[in-house]
Amino acid sequence: MSSPRAPHPAARVIGVLVNGVTLLVASATALVAGLMVAGTIGARAADVRIPSTARTSIATPSATASTAASARPPTPSPTPAPSASPVSRISVSLYRSGGHSYAGIEVPPGTALLTPFEGTVEIRLYQLINNEVRVGSNVPSLPFFPYVTVVSSDRRLTFRPGALGTDKEMLVRDTQQVTLGTPLFRTIGPGRSSWATFYDPSIPFQVVTSLQAVPSGLEIDPLIGYLVD
After folding, report:
1. pLDDT tens-digit readout, 86-124
2. Which of 166, 167, 156 is nearest to 211 (CA)?
3. Among candidate residues 221, 225, 197, 227, the one with its CA nearest the CA of residue 107
4. Domain ranges of the chain
């Protein structure tokens, strides 16, 4: 029986090389597999969104409402209706006739004229008879026109209203003492002053007045503060 032969040296070298190459291939394969697994894991990790920790400003309903309210144009306030101005019950104008100054007063029916200062009342009744102005006459078929005068210590104010009983109602009597604001007479109709009947039919006034100084009788500006009620 023959003994086994020792491997040839060249065969051993080849075997070592083969084993080295096999190990190298196995290592490379393992490396490639590891890289592939790592790439897959990295790709999956990239697909996962990590919540941000940064604070995001969220508008609350109240803030949104405030912003909308500030952006909305302001509603204009309603313009208040103009209040009605009180209508004056008296209109006083300067009236000149025959070189003298008078006050022409216009008042609606129902207006009472008051004395603008204290004094004593004088009442005289006039009538127009045959185109003549007469005082103290008594013709019942013709209208009577009163002259109402208030005499103080320094002034004499004469009122010439319309016809008695149809246009004017007397509220005082002759020789009566009156104080500031005492009602003298009331207009009860649209008739004009006796001046329109006696002298100037073109005037529109319900009353014509004149003012004189006492005791001189000099004419004074008649545009004073007349009072009505």
Report:
1. 446 899 999 999 999 999 999 999 999 999 999 999 999
2. 156
3. 227
4. 9-45, 91-228
